[in-house]
Write a structure and sequence with these properties.
Radius of gyration: 20 Å
Distance between the termini: 21 Å
CATH class of the largest domain: Alpha Beta
Length: 338
Amino acid sequence: MQPLALTLGEPAGIGPDIALTAWRRRSELALPPFYLVGDPQFMAGRAGRLGLDVPIEAVEPGAACATFAAALPVVTIDEAVTAQPGRPDPSSAPAAIAAIRRAVHDVLSGTACAVVTNPVAKSVLYRSGFAEPGHTEFLATLVEDMTGTSAQPVMMLWSPQLAVVPVTIHLPLSQVPARLSTKLIVETGRIVARDLATRFGISRPRLAIAGLNPHAGEEGALGAEDRTVVAPAVEQLRKEGIDAQGPRPADTMFHDAARASYDAALCMYHDQALIPIKTLAFDHAVNVTLGLPLVRTSPDHGTAFDIAGTGRADPSSLIAAIRLAARLAMPAGAAAPR
């Protein structure tokens, strides 16, 4: 199996810290080989600041597996990184973007098996002129640029307890009803059902579709969208042979018995999806991008500037992302998580 490509993320955040910590626990946790895409000198400096004995070795991807046992392999980007913990600087955005670009290239060229992205700071990227809403959309753009094939990325937050998909993602709540459509829900449901079957090994995925309004609209009394937008999407998915249920009242979808009735919940907006999974699995949930011709996972947290460089960052979500990426990248027929 090829190594995983782990991106630097926002260098002023905790991404470098948790990458170093994850490598130190590689033997204890039997982690698959990975290399970090970034600046070797910067990583050595961060290890020294944290008081971690982590040898850093600059390598090409093909040497990462052989290097992994003795040193953290780092594939060098053409961007010097100067940001200090908690203080992004002009090197932050170019380094974060270059690392993502190189990791995607490596997977598409067959030298890595999956991309694991460390957290970025969207505000820092936006100030540099970054045009995409976030990681997920940028990955789709890179895939199209590198392969000539367009893709519709879908963000799923996964944990052993719960998997959720926000149909609309980074939008102000006031814009959600106008952006939500039957077509968007159907397209999202198709991608989720397909990837749950092909990558997660679930033979007949069960999707629970949340209503937009309280009580799924209360038969129109609390909003018409659930009858005119969501319900037709559920009906279309069922016609296509997908086990879709809904629209369901979101406030009763996430207790233990309800979660046992589905494999993934499609939610109509960001917080409807992320609040329950971050409540249930804050330390070990994983962000997974579906709908792309590559495996991409990421920790389900941000850059945590306030604790970067202090040694207090918890690597649990990154470790879960590394493990899940390796499992999803397994050849067809190999064991995969539910």
